[in-house]
Peptide/nickel transport system substrate-binding protein (Sedimentitalea nanhaiensis), 523 residues
Amino acid sequence: MSISTKTRQGALAGLAAALLAATAQAETIRWGAPRDIVSLDPYSYGDSYTINFLNHIYEGLVRYNRDLEIEPALATAWEIVSPTTWRFTLRKGVKFHDGSDFTAEDVLASLERVSDETSPLKGNLPAYQSATVVDDNTIDIELSGAYPLLLNDLTNIHIFDKGWLVANNAEKPTDVSAGVEGYATFNTNGTGPFQLESRTPEAQTVLAVNNNWWDEPAHNLTRIEFQPISSAATRVAALLSGEVDFVDSAPVQDLPRLAQAENLTILERTDLRTVMLGFNRREELVGGGENPMNDLRVRQAMQLAVDMDLIQDKVMRGKSRNAGALVAPSIPGYSEDLDTVAPFDPEKARALLEEAGYGDGFAFDFVCTNESYVNEEQFCQAIASMWSRVGLEPKLDIGPTAKQTPKRANGKADIYTIGWATLPMLDTYSILVQMLHSKEGNSGVFNWGGWSYPELDKLTQSAAVELDREARLDMENKALRIAKDEIIMMPLHQQPMAWAVSRDFSDFPQFPDNKPRMWYVTK
């Protein structure tokens, strides 16, 4: 063997050893998730889970910090230059993952894309009218009127690279519900702390650290391996065996066992998200025939027939919080007087159905997913059983989110599950404008049932431009009262939030909005 050959082999061996050492030192988190994200396009569907995951790749002009307070991100400063115009000064020196410079043109293209008429996320910017580039580092945003919650909204509006959108014919948004896909469905180019390495839908999505991130990292992670594991039992087994380091949806029935594991730490609290049922309020049921749910007495009967205490005790293992209001106690606009849970009264439920002319019951489609909310399949089965006992005929339809979302969003469900945490706004106005308001323009994007209450709409519109906080919250509270009295939505509970994480991690903050933020995690 020649000296040159020996030298080459020695160099290769040294390189291999170095690579092995680098791999060993790499701080990877293996994330066992209850479900996959729906797309790599954050504008493709108003799914908080997907948008949060993509916040590791994409960023907004502002963001919530560790204490859920708004702080600068891609914008460094802002000012109100007229009652309807906000001016944002942008951060200099920021690079997209492909090396392109970040400028005001990127912000303009992103705002136009998310507010497009075809955008499923247009409701996240309800007051947006237009934007004007002042210079490379300054942009003006024009609103429909005085509006106090713009910064809250902008925390969830991710910024794309305009050149990348144009080059890939991706200037228009995609839409999961409508089956509209595009380049941004499968590819990314953000400015965030991590960048996409690979993705196999329903199997694994891998992110690598962005070493050129503009911010000073609080984390020390080099890699995120996101793996959807829909089976709760499999997820728990993977956690206990060390195959995954973290699950953001630890099954409530397994918490006692997980708490005894020496290698794990359990983080528990109640989620901000209120899980509720929505009603078809169109003239006909999905299967045809007059829609009984347009009669308030029928909605009252359906609510009285559900024993929420039993669901809390048996299905949620005592970990949920029964809800009488559509927002959680910590959300501005909440009031305790609205948070009264309807009593379980099957006899009165039967009497109301009889009075409404449906003493013999009626059949309807009840659409649930099997992984969107904690123990959703089980509580849907329980509710269907309770309705059956008062003479109703629910046709329970349970399936994955990807299959059920088009049904719910396109009016193909008579009753459906939905959860709302008022994200990113963290204010009651979020649910008022996006879910309870009549479907028109940027409002009522999640009004999947097709209802309309002019008085509620008026209160919502007034709250949108009211700068006095107490006056605005009073309007929001009155609108919530209408929603409660009319049972526009039927609140169930604030679901339990349980994370389980390996003790190899020294800092792993849990956030009340149930959003893991890996850029704060250290191992």
